[in-house]
Amino acid sequence: MGLFDKIFGNRPKQPKTNAYFQTLDAYTPAFTTMQGGIYEMELTRAAIHSFATHVSKLKPTFYGSVYQSLGKKVAFEPNDFMDTSKFLYRLATILSVNTTAFIIPIYGDDMITIKGYYPVLPRRTEVIDVGGEAYLRYTFANGNKAAIELDKVGILTQYQYQNDLFGDGNQALKSTLSLVDIQQQGMEDAIKQSARIRFMAKLGTVQRPEDIEAEKKRFSRENLSADNDSGVMMFDSKYSNIKQIDSKPFLIDKDQMEQIHKNVYNYFGVNEDILQNKFDEDTWNSFYEGKIEPFALQLGLVMTNMTFTKKEKAHGNYITWTSSRLRYASNKTKLEISSQLFDRGVFSRNDVLALWGMDAEEDGHEKYIRKEYTQVGRLGEEDDNASETNKGISNPSNNEPDTGEQED
Known about the structure:
Elements: H1 3-8, E1 30-32, H2 42-55, E2 59-63, H3 68-74, H4 84-98, E3 100-107, E4 114-120, E5 124-130, E6 133-139, E7 145-149, E8 154-157, H5 174-196, E9 199-203, H6 209-224, E10 239-244, H7 254-268, H8 272-275, H9 281-307, H10 310-314, E11 318-322, H11 331-343, E12 344-348, H12 349-355, E13 367-369, H13 379-394
Antiparallel strand pairs: 1-5, 2-11, 3-4, 3-8, 5-6, 6-7, 9-10, 12-13
Helix pairs in contact: 2-4, 2-7
């Protein structure tokens, strides 16, 4: 049994239908994976990699009483072939490249109980009508086909406008990618040409083309090869002029390159500090709120809807993906948050230790709170209670003074 059978199990591979499911838009409800292109360029791959790497640090939480065992499994291993970090990384990468990503539930033997999740990458996806119900029919690169009910699949999208179900693709970035490719090729060709032509010589007499070619090879062999260890170039009167060409490397205009980089950064919602891992807490918070958090929110909703029934969701069963934004805070911010939230009983000792990247303690789950806080309207009561307590402590025997005498 291979990966294909592990994921799709006993589901029908080719439902008997040729009809597309009718959507509201005028497009055929089909989606084709973009081959190469956006992920084959250094700058765009770096932007996608940075986003996917930070997404891979999200942690799942399953709320409610249903599928608690599945929640513990997904926290480490959503399927038998990848851990949670790889699952999230690939899902974010597929979404960035194709603007549409699919999550397939992996069922148990009863084909009802969900045992895991897998991010599939089909070459073509079609929405077909099977007895009035919408199915997704996948065609993979190796030719395998499979179909599954639409409401059982998780679909993540971005740049969704014209299509009712899928993202619209990354065609908007095509012009920028073309500029990157053209400039890269231009730089390579210019460097090759400047490195290849080093001397220019003019023959003093008219020569046949084959004689010119033979003389060029002879001159190069005797004067420009490694065999000429004297450092001296000699030529006779057949040459009227020999000139050395000063080769200079071809450099792309700085302003043009910055504009291309800016276009890519704007499109993918990143910047140079994020790509080079030199961001501060403010930069990270902006990146998290603008890029990571929307992905985490969509992923939680998609997985909740594909996992739980309407009744189960009504009873408080849902899934979230979260990440600690305080992990990238400065030491000053961490110290302030630690002291303030620990004193107020929000953080336990283990919470504080985790914020500083330290190991938890066995008894560190207890929470504490400072006792000098009280309600404004009860300030007098607190003072009276304190006075009575102090009196009782100073005169333990019914407030009678201690004379120091002992009874016989």
